[in-house]
Structures are given as structure tokens and as C-alpha cells.
Amino acid sequence: MFNSYLKLSRYYLFWCLVGLTAYLLLKQFPIILDLTHNKQHTLSDTTIGLLQKIESPIHITLCSDNNDKLLETQTLVQLYQQYHTVYFNRKRPQGADKILISIDNKEQEISLLSQHLDEGLLTKTIFETYRKENQWVAFLQGHGEPKPFGDEKTSLGWFAQALKNQGFKAQSLPLYETNVIPDNTQLLVIANPKTELLPKELELISGYIERGNNVLWLSGPDETPSLAPLLTALGLEKLPGTVVDEHGYKMGTPHPAITIIDKYPHHESTQAINEITAFPWASAFKLNKQKNDWQITPILTTHAKTWTEKGTLSGPIQYDREEGEVPGPLTIGYALSQAKKEGGEQKILIIGTPKFLTNSAITNYGNLSLGMMLTNWLSSDNALFNIPYPAVKDLTLQLTPWTGWMLEHGLRWVLPMMILLGLLVHQLRRYTRSMHFSRVIKEQ
User: What is the per-residue pLDDT for 230?
Assistant: First the structure.
């Protein structure tokens, strides 16, 4: 009888050791199965290929108190950890939720306030951080443009600081002094120059565009006419006057010349924003008849109750058709793109005012978020980020009440109790049988 119990103990001990070994192996070398209909929890080949180009470890830090965002971020990061050395940790700072990505002392952040974290966004940010060596944003200066540095209400200092937080390097560019646009200029910002540009400056800007470089052009109503031929060459024409927004003024804006945008087209530069934005003293544009290779997309369109005011902006303001004023909806922002010969895509954004990014307005509504989205679109290369966004087909699981109860409580409590009860019954039957044989042997 003792030998039988010894054999039984060895039997259970063996299977316990097998189970413990399997648990430790799976914990150290986890096996992840993606059972979704369209493999939405599997990294794309594009992401895997980009990770293979990065030699240094990737550090990802979630700055948030939200446990749902922690679980969401951890789940996504675990997919990346299968193909690369990725260190993940969490901090609980005061302020907005964000993710910090660091590679070789180069850092970039993802704001989680207006963006949903997914593979496309995380991969794009990781690779931009990796290749971020000399991403200079040059602000054209010398013609009455807002200064890129400073705390004055009319300067672009806070916008330049936001660019710096994203890993860019901002610099002033007085072309009349440098006589060249540096080769490491990732983005040229033309912010409503008021005085005439010299012929050499216009030549340098045109050459910069012809070489396939990107431009953020903030062209207000009082911009110098010397840039009009360049605008025409790009396929656009500025409408005379300043956009007046009667609808926004009735909703509470301080001045009718502040235009409110609350709807955006499905375009990469604006698809992530879900806030209203305000554009003080803006210009409107229209397409001209000149044919070119640019793909031109309107991205900022005003409400119907707007027009291009040609008269004074003080006192009573009303639409005057006889003066040639154009009624809304009006387009105050266009995105231009075309394929480059060497691969990739050239991009230009033309917005009807620089004032929405000045220190006095950038913190209003979603202006800062929009400014950063526009800059990120201009600075990224779509040829590198051909990452699929599969349609979600199986996020919802329809269960009957009984099936739901069994999945929630049955697997947690009922099944283990049934297994334990079965083992107890089995042991009781063996004990009863052994006692019966012992009694029979004694009787004999």
C-alpha cells in the first residue's frame, strides 16, 4: 500500500514539474497568437523591416496615470519587443498624457490628447526619431515676418519651442545675408513677408522648391505681391481681402476677422485633429487654370457665412457683392504634393495666415495641435511609412448571457472546483478500494 502511494506521489510530482517547466518557458519565451480576422495584432512587414534598420535599443516611456492607456501601450509595445530591443517604463507626471521615444539621446514625443496610438503612428515616430540628425526648420527673415524666437505676442516663439520639443532645430534664415538655403534644411517656413523680396532671394526659394524640398507657406492678406508669381506657379491664386466669419462672430469670437474651422477633410495632415481652430486675419485662395504636376487638396474650408472683406475691418462689416467680395465657403488652406524623381514625396502647405501660430493665438482651441500635425506631415516621408491600417472586423464578440457567465465565472471558479472535486473523488475511491482489499485479506 505504501508503494502504491509512493508511485502515485511520483506521478503527480512529475506532472507538476512538467507544468511548472512549461510555465517558466512560456513566461521567458512567450508565444503570441493573433486570432483576429485580419491580423490586426501582428506587425506589418514594413514595420519589421524598419526595426531591422535600427541598431540601438529603443526606450519608450508612457507619461500617464490612465491604466487603460497603460494596457493599450504595453500590448502594442510587446509586439515590437518580438523583433527589437525595446525598453518600456511608465511615469506619472502632472500634465497631458504622452509617450516619449528615445534612441541614442534623440527624443521625440507623441501626444495622446488628440491622437490614437496605433502601429502606424508608433512606427512613424520611432523611425523619425532614429533618423533625426539634422532636421532644421528655417524661418525666412528680413521682410517683416514674425520672429521665430521671443515671447512677444506677434512672434512664433512658442511654435518654435514646440518644434524643438519634437526634435527639430529652428533657425532664422536671412537670405539677403546667407545667399543660400542650407542643404540640411528639412522645412522652409515663409511667414507672410511684408516687404518685397530681392530677385536673388526669389531665385533661391524657387530653386529650393524645384529641388523637391518641403515648404510651410503662411500667406496673409498683407503679404508682399512679389511672391504672387510663385503662388501662381504652384497652381493657386490669392483672393483679395480678409476673410470675415459672421458665423464665428455670432458664436463668440472677439472679432469677425477671426475665422473658425470645425470640420476637416480626410487628409493625412489633418485627419488626427478633432478640435476647432481659429485663424485671425486670414486670406482665401482659389485654384488657377495653370496645369502642373501638383496634387492640390483643400484642407481648411470656412463656414458658409463668410466672405472676403475688402473694406475696413472696424465698425459695421457686411458683405458687398458689388465690390467683388467672394462669399463662403472659402478655402484658406491647401496641401500640395507630388512624387519626387528620386523617390518619396514633396510637400507644400499654403495657409492663409501666420497669426494662428503666433504666441497670442497658438494656445487657443486646437491651434497648437494643428500646427504640429501640419509640420509632422511636411517633415515625414510617406515612402518610408507604407504601413497598412486594416479595417477592424472582429472587435465585438456577441455572447449569450449564459455563455458570458461561463466565460467570466466558469473558467475562473467552476472549472477549477470541478477538477479539484474530481481528484478528491478519485482519491476517495482508491482509498475505499484499498480498505476493502485490506479487510478481505484480514478475513482470509
Answer: 94
